[in-house]
## 1
Amino acid sequence: MTVFTEGNYQRNISFREELRRNLGLLRALVARDLKGKYRRSQLGFLWNFLQPLLQMVVYVVLRLLFNMSTDGSPFVIFILSGVIPWNYFLQVVNGSPGQITGNAGIFRKVNVPRELFLVNGALVNIVETSIGFLLLGILMIIYKVPVNWSILWLPVLALLLALMALGLGMLLTAVGVYQADILVFINPVLQVWFFLTPVFYPISLIPEKYLALYTLNPMVGIILGFRNVINSGVAPDLGSLAYSLVGIVIIWMIAWPLFRRVSPYFADVL
């Protein structure tokens, strides 16, 4: 039987007040970053349409040069279904350390969870990525790509993608704030990772003898999931998605305790 005491009541009130304060700060951060990002831009949010389109032009050239297969899907749909999720992953991971360094003035004055700033970066990029998926939806209508019940997998895949990006961004931030060389080194690593993930090529290009090793990459299952749902109208491959889930769990088991341990000292370092 739960005994309600004055101490318990006060703790519950304090928790609700802190939660309300943190959510209010998060909303303010998201609104500030969205407005600030396009404040001096003439095109504003239109850049979120133009960026994937410009990338698609590059891949069209690559396809002409190397005669890449798309497994029967319209090329623009095939490319964008991989590029848009990957761009979100890249932007969140690369932007996470900047969320801490750029907001040091806030947590020097106000005691708030440092994770809040990383969540802010993930949410801002979700808004931008949604615009990219809107473009993809328009193109699917133009190319008459059928949509069925498998589209219900998209929120699950989006959640896994966000958790993957946020966990890796948290790990990178926990180390990179203290060792800036890590932040320089991560860009080449992400470029190699890009080519080891089926973003602009089909997984059918991977020799079968290397397939088991290839799918250990946790981004493979997520990107393939988006591609299966959008291009083929089928559910994601649960085997490869399981590898992604295991990878996410491992990253969070390392990243979050490490981040919680070092984040109270960010203000001293910055």
Note: The mean pLDDT is 84.
## 2
Amino acid sequence: MEDKVLPPKKSIDPFHLSSQALSPESWKIFRIMAEFVQGAERLAQIHPSVSIFGSARTPPDHRYYAMAEEIARLLSDSGFAVVSGGGPGIMEAVNKGAYGGKGPSVGLNITLPHEQSSNEFQDISLTFRHFFARKVMFVKYASAYVVLPGGFGTLDELMEIMTLIQTGKSRRIPIILVHAPFWTGLLDWFCKTLVPEGTIAREDLDLIDVCDDPQDVLKVIFRYYEHRGFEPSREEAQIQLNL
């Protein structure tokens, strides 16, 4: 067997870094750090907040758009900051609804080659280059997750929060799926395939609530926090700090 050829270890003095010592990948770490710092500095001051997700491809005349706008307006008028991905479609509806309400409308925008463009209904607008930094910001400061019909990006955010809560890496918060007919197939698959196969536990399904009426979204959130308040416990705060 031939000996493996491994790259040489570099000994770098962090107090005497130079452009010659750092590769492009190393410099990228500082850009990533900047995104986390920027997001934390702005969002840590905005609470309670609700992160809302849905398709970027939903047109303004669609019933999902109207539903998202109403939910966001109700949450905003109830004292929540409302956070969306800052783009078109349901994200625009969310920001538009919150923008017209009492709470701040927050957009966590992402730089993409084609699809993403920022909407105009944002009191606070942050732009990210990296999906993973943006995803942390959606989770870290949220008191609830509201998920409307959407595609891969929406499903990605849904699975992210469910995995983090299931594994104890994030505190428990309400996860609300809006419009039951859209989600029935996925939930049936969870129940009839994943649970019998043993890949999830049946109690993992208790992480999810399903609502069809915008007012019910608020009821689920307020019911969850009725006897504990929105401030995280000391243990939860430590969990979120280490997220």
Note: Residues 27-241 form a domain with the Rossmann fold fold (CATH 3.40.50.450).
